[in-house]
Amino acid sequence: MLKTGDPSINWSSFRPCSDRKKVVWIDNGDITEIGSTFEEVWIDEEKDLLFRKQELHFLDPNKPPRRINLVLKRSTFEPISCSDDGPFNVKIIYQSNEIIVNSTLHDKVEGVFDLFSIELLLRILPLEIGYSIELQTFNHMEHQTVSANLQVLQIDKVSNGMEEVDAWCIRFYFGDKLQTYWISCETKKLLKQSVKISNGIFFDFVR
């Protein structure tokens, strides 16, 4: 079971970055572009903090943008706070023994990760085919801590926006929900993310 701050992981190896992707809806093979997402991650070394900001903008003018802000302790990835003004509209504060979600208290499991930090975690793990870990994540959509498992399945060819490159294909289950990530073997950047909604229905972030 991997926990925040595990000494086997070089947590401080994460570097500031920014990224932009298209958002597509896939319905049994039919692909429709529905928006775009922008991510920026920066670090305050003096305060040992890592900040992640993500914005999701839809092509549909009737859908407001979604903004997610995450703060972690850089040297351990221990979550400090997270806000999401999307459909769940939550503000989370992580304390030593409790998690406060919109003023409601929840018990905090030792070593728990914030669900939105997984995309950052993948970029510093020692990935190889067959690599697998279990961890605990706080899922703000369900207001509870859920067990999660990630496994590196294979190396695929994935677009980095300019050409096809080798990428680790990583299957991530949190509870009974599935997401798949593709991390560049060379740069460790997140090239693609696929969220399974139901059979044949996916919500993908692509370059």
Write up what this structure looks like.
There is one protein chain. It is built from one helix and 15 strands. With 207 residues, the chain is mainly β.
Would you count the extended β strands for me?
15
The CA-CA distance between the termini, in Å, is 32 Å
- What fraction, in percent, of the residue positions are helical? under 10%
Shape: globular
What's the pLDDT, averaged over the residues? Answer: 95
Largest sheet: 15 strands, mixed
The fraction of residues assigned to DSSP E strands is over 45%
SS content category: mainly beta
Number of separate domains: 1
Number of helices: 1
| Quaternary form | single chain
Low-pLDDT windows of residues: none
- Which strand order does the major sheet show? 8-7-6-5-4-3-2-1-15-14-13-12-11-10-9
What descriptors fit this protein?
15-stranded mixed sheet, 207 residues, mainly beta, 1 helix
